[in-house]
Amino acid sequence: MPGTDTVAGAARSAAPQEIYVVPSRCTGCRSCEMACAVEHSQSKSLFGAITETPLPRRRIYVEAVDTVAVPVACRHCDEAFCANACITGAIRRDSRGFVLLDDSRCIGCNSCIMLCPFGVIQKDETRHVAVKCDLCPDLPGPACVAACPTDALRFQEAGDFARSRRRTAAVVGAAAAGGVVAGPGGDADPDPAAAD
């Protein structure tokens, strides 16, 4: 609603970075899930996290579809149904344009869980509050992105991500046509996948 500071009424800041996925690079190793859980643990270490009670919750989920693994996380939607449904205002858009949850205001009604089209808001059954991606505000970028060993997750602006995907498509197309593919330094790049 216009004039409010909830997600529905707040405009995104200019070109915020978001998590983008390159599914062809994901091996399904779940390093992103583990890094997310560790970052949201009390100890911030793997050894400490696995001994905590309750166990820390991940906010990214690797889903397998046939033979392809795809990491799925909050999309920080422009029209965020979760925030529109939140009766306490616990879910809001911050000054960077990200959709964040203040769990101190959450009453555990599950409205956000029911309305998230991606199924990435979960309930912490111990604390009876919703849990969702916060893009790791204490880090330079999300822990899941930093942990990905294959660069399947990218934290970029939409335009930068689109440019990299166009470059990949051009490289693959040129290679398929039998052309010489120039790499980033102008050298021939025999591996079209290297451009992603």
By oligomeric state, this entry counts as single chain
CATH topology: Alpha-Beta Plaits
Helix proportion of residues, in percent? 10-25%
Q: What is the 3D form?
A: globular
In the CATH hierarchy, what is the architecture at level 2?
2-Layer Sandwich
Write down how many β-strands occur, each being a DSSP E stretch of 2 or more residues: 8
As residue ranges, the low-confidence spans are 1-13, 185-194
Question: Number of folding domains?
Answer: 1
Mean pLDDT: 86
Supply Rg.
Answer: 19 Å
Question: CATH first level: which class?
Answer: Alpha Beta
Number of helices: 6
What are the secondary-structure elements, in order, as H or E? EHHEEHEEHEEHEH
Adjacency order of strands in the biggest sheet: 1-8
What would a concise description of this structure say?
This protein is α+β, with helices and mostly antiparallel strands and 196 residues long. The chain is built from six helices and eight strands. The radius of gyration is 19 Å and the shape is globular.
List the helices and strands and how they pair.
Layout: E1 18-21, H1 31-39, H2 46-49, E2 60-65, E3 68-73, H3 81-85, E4 91-93, E5 99-101, H4 111-115, E6 122-124, E7 129-131, H5 143-147, E8 153-156, H6 158-176
Antiparallel strand pairs: 1-8, 2-3, 4-5, 6-7
